[in-house]
Design a protein that fits this description.
The complex is a heterotrimer of chains A (about 325), B (about 325) and C (about 500). Chain A is mainly alpha-helical. Chain A contains 14 helices and 2 strands; from the N terminus they run H-H-H-H-H-H-E-H-H-H-H-H-E-H-H-H. Chain B is mostly helical and about 325 residues long. Chain B is built from 14 helices and 6 strands. Chain C has a 6-stranded mixed β-sheet, sandwiched between helices. In chain C, strand 21 and strand 22 form a beta hairpin. The chains are: A mainly alpha (about 325), B mainly alpha (about 325), C alpha/beta (about 500). At the A-C interface, helix 1, helix 8, helix 9 and helix 10 of A face helix 2, strand 8 and helix 5 of C.
Chain lengths: ~325, ~325, ~500
């Protein structure tokens, strides 16, 4: 009597219970993330007097703008079914490149331009290699990571302070109420959200994550989409590197150290399964904010040791991974 | 007889790229690095560039052995670096702060490694979580756990047994080399002397067929992760012994990537199935040899990273089916 | 009607793969507004024909005409643009996107450069309404029942101005109501002038829905008939390549001497999905044949007995003791061995050598700490290489490099090595040369003489009749009847398959 679709049985029962649409399996991961974010925020606001201050909110955003930028790009890649391990090293490369160019007399803006162009081109090349030769993204972007890190360290092993009036002006904004890094993050996140939800390209990327063969049969230009998502990731990583220089006033080859892991963790916590096909920029932003909240909350709680942060993130990651697995299992994937 | 010879050839064939790479490296050094092959004894202990490579490469050899087994089951273990840190921290804090005798400290560290592996195995084989994400949890949280153990400090110790692990030597051969060799021997015995290797290869190559043939696929996969954790723990002890301290932050940093590269270079396919432990060891030695050679030629270590990137890409391309097909088409008359 | 050029026509299509002529001068013709059934057993060439029509695989020779004009689509997407759309058995849409998005992927209406989501929803609802299907277009496609997913695929094809719609086994996962609804939709499409190619193995549905039937065998179309003028027995005969007169001439085999009456294995009430409930007994020293068309449930039954799939109901007993369902290990421990139908997916481990493949099940039963050792494995492997005449330069050759027939022998060897009490053979002679087939049939006889209880599944009815002393015929997932002793004849089996007496 009941239909034999491979996925329908548990969800039929769910529908029979008339569970509100918002909590259906499709929205559950995002709902869980936002729920955790709100709960965490509420807990902090209650537990720590003075948590609800603009200063805290500002720290939250500034401290994670760089990570957030990288996460936007990473979200696209993961949605399309891939992964990009090179973003952390790309941040360092972009940051030291900008600093080095400015040191040699360049104006910051064209220096930014070069960094962004290289980041985008590098990403596109990665995507092209992965598609053309059907290489595993894990290994190719791993090579990219080695490459970026090597190049960055070759430019300079020590950090380079950026001394340029234009850059100083920007950095002064950084200590003001609206830091440029945060503005950048907000703009890019918004743009990413729009592209992911409201452009044909964004929907094609989702379709690709749902199954490459099926996407191809539906007319999705798989090669173009793949190259584009990696190019976006490269662009976002370069932007993040630029933002890092704005925040710290210097370029450093080791900037972005291990950020690729944090980015993957934030994206997964944000509700995007690593297998691809689902997820949202909103979720990623929530994931990044959760990161930031935990970091902010710890000193308030008297926890000055950074290791609790790592453990907390690991625990959250575990919880969300199991949650996703549980939902997947119900869907019979 | 010819058949057995062909089988040996095929097994060697898997490790051939790594052997060739090592061979090329040795040839290069023979030609361009004066004194590379010199062996001297310093206070009864063998010394020289060759010895150096074997000595420093021991850690990655250990990691590569475990990683080859995991990759053969179709997975990957990103947490080995973090497990190294945890193991080192366990032994160091037990010995230095709690006065536990060295052997028990070592045993505890090894047990912790096995437990970490069991955790990964439970997630992958039990809960069906994707290996990258599953091992990412420990990779993120593991260092936090290690720092928790050390209290955020670098815990130094000065125990004769623990120190011996790295500094000691037997009949001139440095201990790390002996430990790595012993690990290679044990893992060969375990995988080829029992049916475990056969089961791992079957489960990685065609999981459905293996299951229908009666292989306990889940147990086999989980055991690969446990063995990998064990190897990582031993590597962590070596690393700690090297600096006579447990550095939770830096122990094993980025080594998981070297281990994956070594295993893949050694002939273990990322898709799962056939593996080669000897090849993985050779691959690890190649990576270390490369680093040492470049160092001896005053090449900045940053260039090593770029060479590693090229190596990863070369290995991927060589293994890619599409590239093989393309070559076949080109070579047809 | 007969003078208008056919809407879709294939003439003399040839496609050769190494070692096999998948298409050997295949012809096909489809009229506008017609629902045309395409049938054939495994290896007949159905799927290759479809791939040639839809551009997935270019034919080596022959031509395809659409509306009289020659077309040569190089990809399925090109074929879609020409007007030939396919709805695949696995649907092949994006399960993670909503139904609406799937319908309009790549063609979403836009406003100021951005997708107009409300317009997408509206258009999707229109398209589904055109088919008479009500569904929540906002839900992810994967969360909807397969029947609805198929409708979505059809709706998408319609929106792409399909003139020809190919439905590949659409009813395999549908229940009776959903099938009826699908038929209604398909009839509506035909009424609009769209030509529908209906690929199926359900004979009843063919007569319900289709005007003409093309039967393929060995890469060619062996018959094109009007469904109303084709008795089902003749249809079955065409599909299996048996002439009815010949069928009458092949008599039944003698009851096996020494086949004891009490069953070694009993299964009661086994069911899973569309298949079941199935009751069958396997007697020690006897061979039970399981006959039926593709999709009748034979493989599913064997897999349930062997623990490869977990049944939703029913039980299996060996010598009176129950066997825990769903575990191949427990089945093997109880003495049940299954030689599976799909050797590539379920049996052959391509990277391992012939020796390791053959010894695998025996080793798995012993556990990891009691290795047979290389020498022991060699001995086992070489014994079977000799007795089954497996063509390989040596036992160290990777099994994936052997030809299909020899791979089949390797799999057989694996399960013979286990010395089971109950042996289930699912299409053991598929892809094997004639000489080897005879050997395998002799082997079955030997095993029976040694007291093994056998289940023998084959699409070749003569083979089943020759080898087995009893035959259970399955149709549409249920038992259609059992024959034994002298009643086991090709004709009687075919009649049961065809459901003779229930349909003209």
């Amino acid at each position: 009597m009941t239909p034999r679709g491979p996925d329908s049985r548990p969800l039929r029962r769910l529908r029979a219970l008339r569970v509100p649409a918002l909590l259906s399996a499709q929205h559950a991961p995002l709902a869980a993330t936002v729920g955790v974010l709100i709960a965490l925020f509420a807990a902090c606001a209650i537990a720590f007097p003075g948590f609800l201050s603009p200063g805290v909110a500002r720290n939250l955003l500034v401290g994670n703008a760089v990570l957030g930028l990288v996460c936007v790009g990473m979200t696209f890649v993961i949605i399309s079914g891939g992964i990009d391990l090179s973003v952390g090293a790309a941040i360092g490369f972009a940051s030291i490149l900008v600093a080095s160019l400015v040191q040699q007399g360049w104006h910051p803006l064209p220096a930014f331009g070069v960094a962004l162009a290289i980041g985008t081109a590098g990403g596109a090349a990665t995507g092209a290699l992965i598609h053309r030769f059907a290489l595993p993204p894990f290994l190719v972007t791993l090579a990219g990571m080695f490459c970026y890190r090597g190049c960055a360290l070759m430019v300079s092993e020590r950090s380079i302070t950026i001394r340029h009036p234009f850059h100083r002006t920007l950095s002064e904004w950084a200590s003001g109420p609206v830091p440029p890094a945060v503005v950048l993050f907000v703009v890019v996140a918004l743009a990413g959200w729009i592209v992911a939800r409201w452009t044909r390209f964004g929907r094609d990327a989702h379709a690709l994550g749902g199954g490459e063969e099926s996407a191809r049969l539906m007319g999705v230009r798989v090669g173009r989409v793949k190259v584009s998502v990696y190019a976006i990731s490269g662009l976002c990583a370069a932007l993040a590197g630029v933002a890092a220089t704005l925040t710290t006033g210097a370029g450093n080859a080791t900037a972005g150290h291990l950020y690729e892991l944090d980015a993957i963790a934030a994206v997964v916590i944000g509700g995007t399964p690593l297998a691809g096909g689902a997820g949202s920029i909103l979720g990623t932003v929530a994931g990044v904010l959760i990161f930031g909240l935990i970091q902010e909350a710890m000193p308030h709680a008297g926890v000055t040791n950074s290791w609790w942060f790592r453990i907390a993130v690991g625990g959250l990651l575990l919880a969300f991974v199991l949650l996703q697995r549980g939902l997947e299992g119900g869907r019979g994937r | 007889m010819r058949d057995a010879a062909r089988a040996a050839l095929r097994a060697f064939g898997r490790a051939a790229p790594a052997a060739v790479a090592v061979g090329l490296l040795l040839a290069f050094n023979a030609a361009y690095t004066p004194g590379f092959f010199d062996l001297t004894t310093v206070e009864g202990r063998l010394a020289g560039s060759m010895v150096d490579v074997l000595n420093r490469g021991a850690v990655v050899v250990l990691l590569a052995l475990g990683m080859a087994l995991v990759i053969a089951t179709g997975g990957v273990d990103l947490s080995v670096g973090a497990v190294m840190a945890i193991a080192g921290a366990t032994a160091a804090t037990l010995a230095a702060r709690h006065g536990v005798n060295a052997w028990s400290a070592i045993a505890a560290a090894v047990a912790v490694g096995a437990a970490a592996g069991a955790f990964n195995g439970a997630l992958v084989a039990g809960a069906g979580v994707q290996p990258i994400v599953a091992t990412l949890v420990l990779m993120v949280a593991g260092r936090g756990a290690a720092q928790l153990l050390t209290g955020g400090q670098i815990v130094t110790f000065n125990d004769p047994v623990l120190n011996f692990l790295d500094a000691g030597f037997v009949a001139g051969a440095p201990m790390p080399v002996l430990i790595a060799a012993a690990a290679l021997a044990c893992s060969l015995l375990l995988s080829r002397g029992t049916a475990l290797g056969l089961f791992i290869e079957a489960a990685g190559d065609n999981e459905r067929a293996a299951r229908l043939a009666g292989v306990r696929v889940r147990a086999v996969k989980a055991s690969a992760y446990v063995l990998c954790g064990l190897a990582a723990a031993i590597a962590g002890l070596l690393a700690a012994s090297d600096i006579r301290a447990a550095d939770a932050n830096n122990a094993g940093l980025y080594l998981e990537l070297d281990a994956i590269l070594a295993a893949v270079l050694g002939g273990t396919s990322l898709r799962g199935g056939r593996f080669s432990l000897a090849g993985a060891a050779l691959g690890a030695l190649f990576i270390q040899g490369l680093t040492t050679t470049l160092y001896l030629h005053d090449v900045s270590p940053n260039a090593t990273l770029i060479v590693k990137a090229a190596a990863v890409l070369a290995v991927c391309l060589a293994a890619s089916e599409r590239v093989r097909a393309w070559i076949k088409i080109r070579s047809r008359p | 009607m007969g003078d208008a050029p056919p809407l879709l026509e294939a003439r003399g299509l040839v496609k050769v793969y190494p070692g096999v002529r998948a298409l050997d001068g295949a012809d096909f013709s489809l009229r506008a507004g017609e629902i045309h059934a395409l049938m054939g057993e495994n290896g007949a060439g159905k799927s290759t024909l479809v791939k040639a029509l839809t551009g997935a695989v270019p034919p080596d020779a022959g031509e395809v005409r659409l509306g009289g004009r020659v077309v040569r689509p190089r990809t399925p997407v090109e074929a879609q643009t020409l007007g030939i759309s396919t709805v695949y058995q696995e649907v092949n849409l994006a399960p993670n996107l909503s139904l609406a998005e799937n319908l309009l992927l790549g063609r979403q209406p836009r406003r100021f450069g951005l997708i107009d989501r409300r317009a997408v929803r509206r258009r999707a609802e229109e398209l589904m309404a055109r088919l008479g299907v009500r569904a929540d277009v906002g839900r992810p496609l994967g969360s909807l029942p397969i029947a609805v997913q198929q409708m979505a695929a059809i709706a998408r094809a319609l929106d792409l101005d399909a003139r020809v719609l190919i439905l590949d086994e659409p009813t395999s996962s549908l229940d009776a109501d959903e099938t009826a609804r699908l038929f209604g939709v398909v009839r509506g499409l035909a009424a609009r002038g769209i030509g529908v190619v209906f690929i199926t193995h359900f004979i009843g549905q063919v007569y319900d829905l289709c005007a003409r039937v093309t039967v393929m065998r060995n890469g060619r179309a062996v018959a094109v008939r009007d469904a109303r003028a084709l008795p089902s027995l003749e249809l079955v005969a065409l599909m299996l390549g048996v002439s009815i007169d010949e069928a009458r001439a092949i008599g039944g085999t003698h009851a096996r001497a020494g086949s004891s009456a009490d069953p070694a294995l009993r299964s009661r009430g086994l069911r899973r999905g569309r298949v079941g409930p199935i009751d069958l007994d396997l007697r020690r020293g006897g061979a039970l044949g399981l006959a039926g068309l593709l999709g009748s449930g034979r493989t599913e039954t064997a897999r349930m007995i062997a623990g490869a799939d977990r049944p939703e109901g029913g039980r299996v007993e060996i010598d009176g003791r129950g066997v825990r369902p769903g575990s191949p290990r427990r089945a093997i421990a109880a003495g049940i061995a299954l030689c599976p139908e799909d050797r590539k997916a379920d049996a052959i481990v391509p990277g391992l050598s012939v020796r390791e493949n053959i010894a695998l099940a025996v080793q798995a039963r012993r556990g990891w700490w009691r290795p047979i050792g290389r020498r022991g494995q060699r001995a086992i492997a070489e014994r079977f290489v000799r007795s089954l005449r497996i063509a390989t330069p040596g036992v160290e050759k990777p099994a994936g490099e052997l030809s299909g027939g020899n791979q089949q022998k390797v799999v057989l060897a694996r399960w013979l090595a286990v010395e089971p009490r109950v042996l289930l053979l699912d299409e053991p002679t598929r892809g094997i040369d004639v000489g080897a087939k005879a050997e395998i049939e002799r082997l079955v006889g030997d095993l029976c003489a040694r007291g093994v209880a056998m289940l023998f599944i084959s699409s070749e009815i003569e083979e089943v009749v020759r080898v087995c002393d009893r035959v259970l015929v399955l149709r549409d997932g249920r038992a259609a009847g059992e024959l034994s002793g002298g009643g086991v004849t090709v004709e009687s089996v075919m009649r049961l398959i065809a459901g003779e007496g229930e349909r003209a």
